[in-house]
Design brief:
Elements (H helix, E strand, L loop, with lengths): L1 E6 L5 E4 L7 H14 L8 E8 L5 E8 L3 E7 L11 H12 L1
Antiparallel strand pairs: 1-2, 1-5, 3-4, 4-5
């Protein structure tokens, strides 16, 4: 699961919140939990948090309003499709894609 975040200056960065989950359902459950607890690495004194879910039901926008700033973070699931240590990962991903 990854979250890209941006402030009003529109700086974008991707960071991983959780790795190594076995199934998409596990990743989605972790994502749903993270929208209520995720905090940016940049210090912000949270006054209000708004969570929006996009139509795909798998992407969320978290808006954290602080004393002086507003922080936006898009949280979504990312799937490993290649791993040089485990070529079977790419094979599984391709099979899953072919059957979807």
């Amino acid at each position: 699961m990854s979250g890209g975040r941006r402030s009003r200056s529109c700086a974008t960065r991707t960071e991983f919140i959780r790795r190594g989950l076995e199934t998409r359902d596990q990743a989605l459950e972790a994502l749903r939990e993270a929208v209520h607890t995720y905090t940016p690495s940049k210090k912000i004194i949270e006054k209000r948090r708004q969570v929006y879910r996009f139509a795909d039901q798998e992407t969320y926008l978290v808006v954290i309003k602080g004393k002086l700033t507003e922080w936006e973070c898009t949280l979504r699931v990312a799937e490993v499709i290649a791993d040089s240590k485990d070529p079977a990962v790419a094979e599984r991903a391709q099979r899953d894609y072919d059957t979807a």
